[in-house]
Amino acid sequence: MTPVFPLAAWACDPARSRGRRYPVTPDPTRSSYQRDRDRIVHSSAFRRLEYKTQVFVNHEGDLFRTRLTHTLEVAQLGRSIARALALNEDLVEAICLAHDLGHTPFGHAGQEALNDCMRAWGGFEHNLQSLRLVDFLEQRYPAYDGLNLSFEAREGILKHCSRRNAELLEAREPGGVGARFLRGEQPSLEAQLCNLVDAIAYSAHDVDDGVRSHLLTLDQLREVPLVARYLAQVVAEYPRLARPEGARRLRHETIRRMLSGQVHDVITTTRDAVERARPADVDAVRRLPPLVAFSAAMGEGTQQLQQFLLRNLYRHPQVARTMEAAQQVVRELFTLYREDATRMPADQAAQAFTADDEAQRMRSIADFIAGMTDRYALREHERLTGRRLLP
Length: 391
Ligand code: MG
Description:
Elements: H1 32-41, H2 44-48, H3 67-84, H4 89-98, H5 107-117, H6 126-137, H7 151-157, H8 163-172, H9 179-183, H10 189-212, H11 225-237, H12 247-277, H13 282-287, H14 296-314, H15 317-339, H16 346-354, H17 358-371, H18 374-385
Helix pairs in contact: 1-4, 3-4, 3-10, 4-7, 4-10, 5-15, 7-10, 10-12, 10-14, 11-12, 15-17, 15-18, 16-17
């Protein structure tokens, strides 16, 4: 199929895809990356993102980002930039929509707790879990497990991987998605882009949610040079927004300009880097250093913002208290299922019972917990312990 927008030579071209693990008949109207995207949107894991924490636990407010709205913002930014760079927009969309599928309930706190529980059996990593979901855990097709996505989508979903896990993947699938971590290669530009827009999206929306929740103030954000610059610009143009009744528009306009600044910076910097490197195709991209990047100045500004958010929002005592309770929920659920697998729903328990060894049994418990939404985890914990740890 001819794409509506011409693709750069270094973009991923569905006609030259490395294909799927199980061959399928080509679709008459959709490219294989469009098909990947559709499979992701129709998966159960995608729908569960709606009730999973980004930073704020779901019940804390209706307007805060959830994993789902975060995911949609990532996909929006990714598509805009992909189109400007003549990269494959459909592939970027697919990878962005899948990038957080493997997240546990309660965000990073949940992942840390589950990783601790699984320490003796290979640990738990949300990135690897996203791949595990699309490769094995989704059960939708008669002939195979998983969503059977294209190599390029799977390559983008696995953005980090320890050497040990890469070796395990390589043993299962020689020359597959684990290989680049062993060879020290990069993924496609589409995958590199999704990784960067994830960071752009969350640093912008966490400023918004942080201020909206009153855990941060716009004044406090003046200590971050990147935010201060856009804030000053907006106040200079619209002095009336400096009054209390202008606070909401001031916040939105500042964040909007910051996002645009970052997006245009990535487009310009990446375009220059690609023009200089002139990779012949995506395989040449994989052998080069990363090409999708911020300029040095914007990279530093964004990093300062991320450090500010870490100190003042992610480690805010109120967030930390919620997250401690959330970790307790995850740890206690793991112990309860480990003591007695019949505490899990029958099909899940059956998997735990039929597993060959202890590591596989523990993995099936971790899969079950990782798949939970925040509220399901809280309800399940209450059902088994009689205690409600969060409202
Ligand atoms: Mg994300």
